[in-house]
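Hey forum,

I'm writing up a methods section and want to include a predicted complex as supplementary material. The small molecule is zinc ion. I've pasted the protein sequence and the SMILES. Can someone with a working setup run it? I'll credit the forum in the acknowledgements.
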Amino acid sequence: MLVNLKTVLYDAKEKKYGVPAANVWNEGTVKAAIATAEKYRSPIILALYPAMADILEFGPVAVRHAMRSSVPVVVHLDHGQEFSDAIKAVRAGFTSIMVDRSTCPYEQNVAEVKEIVKIAHAIDISVEAELGHVGKGCDYEKIKNEGLTDLAEAQSFVRETGIDCLAVAVGTSHGLYSGIPEIQFERLDRLNQAIAIPLVLHGCSGTGDENLKKAIQFGITKLNLYTDLDRAGCALLDRYCSRKKIANMMEAETAILEGYAQKLRYYIELFGSMKRV
Ligand SMILES: [Zn+2]
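Reply by user p_vandermeer:
Happy to help. Structure tokens for the complex are below, copy them as they are.
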């Protein structure tokens, strides 16, 4: 069933588990993600990033699959950086929008997020926004202590914008890390104590199982995954290729999606979202 983000994350917050937000970019990844969630009875968030998937063309395909699913599925705009991204997501039937203005000054971030919240809430769409900035893993050694979420600012940001969940910068990074991830659990704990809405962690790939499990205990409810799913798909294809010659593209695609699904299953178990629905 197609649901909004609030429905899924408030249950996760209450029961202290995490819901995977898996990037999808074609029908194969949508079907693999939903089938895995159904098999292990987990809610799932399908994250569509405008640079990877055409929101207007492909979004409705994801929405149709979500509607037919036997588990709660959120169709979510990942890192919508333009006003038009959010409007396209509304038109495509999404149930959740991330308004990412994390590189803008605070006042501009608040103003632009508020604008989308007003539109989205009128039609029961959830909104995620980011305060502080989760950067790129390739720069991690240089930037790991920059752009971290400030507690007082986060409290006023949540109050002023009326968002449904907050993406926090507490030491994770997008893509592959250069160096060892250092998560600021004290900062996360303080944010969690002070902020009533669910918290979101971007850049979970490569962050480490123990760090992610601990982050869930400290209030993280949505965990974004792309790189690890992508790497797992490529690794399984490599293994197939080392054993036998791939006969055709469909066989290659099947192997890639199997690797993607296996890794997603792994995280569903790690995050404790298995058998929740
Ligand atoms: Zn992200």
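Some notes you might quote in the supplement: Residues 5-226 form a domain with the TIM Barrel fold (CATH 3.20.20.70). The two ends are 11 Å apart (CA to CA).
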